[in-house]
Request: fold
Amino acid sequence: AQSVAQPEDQVNVAEGNPLTVKCTYSVSGNPYLFWYVQYPNRGLQFLLKYITGDNLVKGSYGFEAEFNKSQTSFHLKKPSALVSDSALYFCAVRGFNNNDMRFGAGTRLTVKP
Amino acid sequence: KAGVTQTPRYLIKTRGQQVTLSCSPISGHRSVSWYQQTPGQGLQFLFEYFSETQRNKGNFPGRFSGRQFSNSRSEMNVSTLELGDSALYLCASSVSEAGGPADTQYFGPGTRLTVL
Reply:
């Protein structure tokens, strides 16, 4: 079965600095990878996904993610963090033959002014 | 397009009662999935419905059930509530004609269930 690991519970960055939220995955066959963001008392908002093709995926709100097959990673990045980016971020994976989306435990991003 | 809507947003029940949560998907979306989110277990998949049929099921007891109607709206039911059922229940919809794993799921705001 597929699984996702987000090794950091918490990431703190200063506003204007680049941010990275890490994600590694395990799946049989080709992975389908997703990033979502959750603000307090809200559902999950879709940021971006990797299906195939270019390893660098661009998404909403200036976020991008880099797929690395050899390291089985899909790290979320943003060149310049905003205070409003502070939220809970989830990485998720599906395998080719399975619609069961598995989520990581989440990483709480705090951007300080 | 309107997003995924869930009703009610908040619910308080007591142990032993049952509860029904409702989800209306984005117009044109035919797949609806349900998730339970708790601080301890994170996001866990409950089940997925497509064309009124349960297509996939997570590892939850039979007290958790669901259904989908012909207009793609979905309900989930939890019977004999336990304290541990307190959680945020999230519904997500996707276009999902053939059940493709590449489909993006769009989430509703959730129903916060508190069991006393």
